[in-house]
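Sample pair:
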Amino acid sequence: MPKAQIFTDWVADRLAVQDLPALLNYRAAPYGAEAHPTEEHFLPLFVAWGAAMGEKPVRYSPPFTYGSLAMDAYLWSGD
């Protein structure tokens, strides 16, 4: 779980400052390649972010599943 927490916190930090170059290179982030060895579960984040048109997201971070699977979700409310 510590590795997963480090990566999910990195994603949240990068989203908060809208650091697109870093997020596009997420596999270079701490534990990024381990967290997402393939792209299919990470790419929808970019679709949602693009649809938000510059809004900053609110992070929902439920408990880890099986001790190491993060299920973070982001909400762009438009408020």
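The chain has a mean pLDDT of 90.
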